[in-house]
Amino acid sequence: MFPHHREREQPIFSARAHVFQIDPTTKRNWIPASKHAVTVSFFYDANRNVYRIISVGGTKAIINCTVTPSMTFTKTSQKFGQWADSRANTVYGLGFATEQQLHQFSDKFKEVKDAARLAREKSQDKELANTALNIAAPQDLSDELQSPPVMCVNGPEDKLFRSQSADITLSSEKERIKKMLSEGSICEMNLEAELFTLQDSNSKLVAALHEANANVEQWKKQLAAYQEETDRLRDQVAELEAHGGQGPSDLLKDELTQSLEELEALLKAKDEEIHILQSKKAEYHEMEHERDEAIHRLRETEMRNSELERRIQNSEQNLNNSLEERDRMDSEIQRAIEILDIKIFDLNDLRQSLVKLIDK
Q: DSSP letter at 149?
C-alpha cells in the first residue's frame, strides 16, 4: 500500500504492539484494531519533511497518522499508552509486552514530535522569506531516500530422511502455541484498557466527592443562616399582619414577602444540590465495585496466562525432545547407511574376485 509515498519515506523506528482505537460511539471503550501484536513504525518523508506513524495488519493500514507538534503521547499504565489524531477523529492506543518498549516508543514519539515542530517552523520561515523576496526557487532532490531492502537468508538443511509427518506435527504445534499466546495477550490488554477507564472515572468521582464534602459544612451553615433569616422574616410578616395598619407600610410587607420567597427558592435549590451529591456518592460506590470486579478479572487472566505459559513451556520441552529424538534417529540412519555402503563395497569386491576365479 502507498507505493508512491513508500518510495520517498524511510523507516526510522519500529516496535511490536497491540493496536486499539477508541469506540467512536462512547468515546470511552477500546476496540482492538489488530488480532495480535503488529509492527508500528515511524517513517520520515525527506521530500515533504513529514513524519508519519504507520502500522499494517494483513492487507490494510490500521494506523496512518501524520505526526504534528500538537500531539501528545500519554502513558496510561505500565504497558499501555495513547495519543489522539484530530485528522482521523480518533484516539489510538498501544499495548506493549514490556514497560521498556513503552518507554522507548514514548521517547521516540517525543523526539519525532520535536522534529516535526522544527520542520514546521523552518517551513514557515522559508515561506515568509519567499513571500518577501517574491522568488520561487523549487529544488529537486535527485537522490530519494529509500529504506534498505529487507533480506532474509535461510541456510540449507542437509538432513537425510526427514519425516514429513513429523514436520507437519511440529508446524501445527507451533501454530497452536502462537494462537494461545495471542489470545492471552489480547485478553490481558482488553482488561488493562477497561481497568484504566474505570480508574479514570473513579479518580474523577473521588475528586468531585472531596470537593463536595469540603463544601457541605459551608452549605449547612448557609442553610441554617437562611432558615433563621426566613423564620425572622416570617415573624416580622406575622407581626405586621397582626398590627394591621399600625406597622410599616404595605410596600415593606411586599419586600419582606419577596425576600422570603427568594430565600425559600434558594433553600430548595440547595436541597436539590444535596440530593445530587448523594446520588453521585452512590455512583462512586458502584464504580468502586466495578473496579474491584475488573481487578479480580485481571488477576484471573494473569493466572490463566501463567497456566498458558506453563503449558507452552511443556510444549516447547516436548518439541525439543522430539527434535533431539529425530536428530538421534537421523544419526543412526546415517550410521546404518555407512555400514551398508561398506558391506556393499565388500560384496562388490567379493564378486569381482569370483569373476576372476571363474575366468581362470
A: P
